[in-house]
Amino acid sequence: MDSFLGRYRNLSVLLLLVVGQLLLLAYQIRSSQDVPLIRIWAVAAVAPMARGLEAARAAATGFFSDYFLLRDVRAENARLKKELGELRLRNHFLSAELASAERARALEQYRARIPSKTLPARVIGAGAGADTRTVFVDRGASDGVQKGMAAITPEGIVGKVIAAYPMAALVQLITAQGAAASVVSQNSRVRGALKGTGAALCLVDHVQNKDPLAPGEWFFTSGHDRVFPRGLPVGQVTLVREGRGGKEVLVEPSALKAPVEEMLIVLDGVHGLIPPPGQPAAEGVSLLPPPPAEGASEPAAPAPNSGALTDADRLAERYRRLTEAQGVQLGVKGRIADFTREPPAAPAAAPKPEPPLP
Amino acid sequence: MNRLEDSFALGLAARGKAARFSPALYITAPLAAILFQVYVPRFFDALSYLELPLLVAIYFALMRRKPASGAFIGCLIGLAQDALSPHPLGMNGISKTLSCYFAASLSLRFDVENPVLRFILGFFFYLFHEFFFWSLSRGLLGRQVDFPIPQSVISAFLNAVVAAALFSFLDRFRRED
């Protein structure tokens, strides 16, 4: 028997294993029962490794997922930053455009309101040289701009054209050294000569120590320099102190508080009125007259020719009232009107009291 | 032809020369193969055709050159595989026991270190295992299952390719007896 098993050892082992498993199968099939012990052992051997593998896989997946997520976040962050920069730039551009449009609109409204004939101009560059306080505008001799013309804005005077080229003109700001304008104060009617100092403030010369002048008072152009029409705002007094040859008065030009982008070149100036004391300077703000008192009658309609805007209009109105009061008809031979007499009082609906002509 | 026969036939020097392995490898390699079959197809369904436990069992049977040992190894690996499968215990066990027994028997006559022969043996024993498993399913369990020949041949080919590579890898852990 031993020799048989030894000779057929391999076959015996095979038969043993196969028969054993067949019996195992037969048992399972016959009894419809499993052999849980073997399965438990197998699962107990494999499960920890599977769990470890799963944990490693989850960790690796999580790591790579987070990594790629972070990469995406970084890329998205960079994209958003770029987009934000572009939007900021666009916003800045649109804000500048809007401000420019508003300035242009205000300039246009101001241009329609004032009697002088003006030409809108845009600053296209600054004059060469350090602290020259000159700017180039996009209007030149071909547009009718000539040397000596005034440059203004609704806020006040800007300067004077010192050179006119075919396609551009050079404007000297009122703050430049050598720039000057004849001015008069609003309340005390103190006259003086505004001079640029090369700094932000201008000096008003020829003001006597006895002249009443206080900080905050407005100066307007008087028209005597034959450059700036009368009645344009110049600026407010910032400093007043007595000196040896007269008062030292410093004025901050109202038009040059901020960089000037657009301006009006005065092609044909017409003198205007200096606002009466107490009335704020234009400064781009339009104020209606105070409302009538309760119970007051409706204001009369203005006279047909009472809307005098210029000196010529006012002079014509004065002569018309004079001749009407004296019964003289202008342009007809006969009696001559006495123009030295004062004309009768203006009708109640007369718009504004006329200040004395200088 | 003579050279091919010579290369397949076991030389005198190699005859009876069995390989030995570390005991740890007898545990870790089958476990890794079973783990691979249990775990990897969850994520890569295309790899479910791989019968790594069979290939590992065939390798040990071929290298041990002892049919009894081969049958024993095949039995254990097959039973372990059955334990983790829904099949009754013994289905894979019997199939692998027979496959490994015949593989070990063949290793006594051929040079199983030849890569081409390894490929052929991998192809053949995969088909043998599948066919025997199918036979047991029909004969013993009475299940009406098909045996798709083209699909089985393709799977056998792919397993043979993997077998050639896997056997070369496992050769690194071999110690000559």
Detailed description of the structure:
- The complex is a heterodimer of chains A (358) and B (177).
- Chain A is an alpha+beta fold and 358 residues long.
- Chain A is built from four helices and twelve strands, in the order H-H-H-E-E-E-E-E-E-E-E-E-E-E-E-H.
- In chain A, 25% of the residues are buried.
- The longest helix of chain B is centred in the C-terminal third of the chain and has 25 residues, at 115-139.
- Chain B has helices at residues 2-8, 23-39, 52-64, 67-83, 91-107, 115-139, 149-171; strands spanning 19-21, 174-176.
- Helix content of chain B is 67%, strand content 3%.
- Classes of the chains: A alpha+beta (358), B mainly alpha (177).
- The interface between A and B is medium-sized, with 27 and 30 residues.
Task: Label this structure with key terms.
heterodimer, A: 358 residues, alpha+beta, 4 helices, disordered C terminus, B: 177 residues, mainly alpha, 7 helices, globular
Gist of the model:
The complex is a heterodimer of chains A (358) and B (177). Chain A has 358 residues and is an alpha+beta fold.
Q: Which range does the strand content of chain A fall in?
A: 15-25%
Oligomer: heterodimer
Please estimate the helix content of chain B. 55-70%
Helix/strand-derived category of chain B reads: mainly alpha
Q: Fraction of residues of chain A in helices?
A: 25-40%
- Number of helical segments of chain A? 4
Overall shape of chain B: globular
Question: Total number of β-strand segments of chain B?
Answer: 2
- Please compute the radius of gyration of chain B using only Cα atoms: 16 Å
Helix and strand string of chain B, N-terminal first? HEHHHHHHE
Estimated radius of gyration of chain A: 47 Å
Q: Strand count, sense and closure of the main sheet of chain B?
A: 2 strands, antiparallel
Q: What distance separates the N and C termini of chain B?
A: 31 Å
Strand content of chain B: under 5%
List the total number of helices of chain B.
Answer: 7
What general form of chain A does the structure show?
Answer: rod-shaped
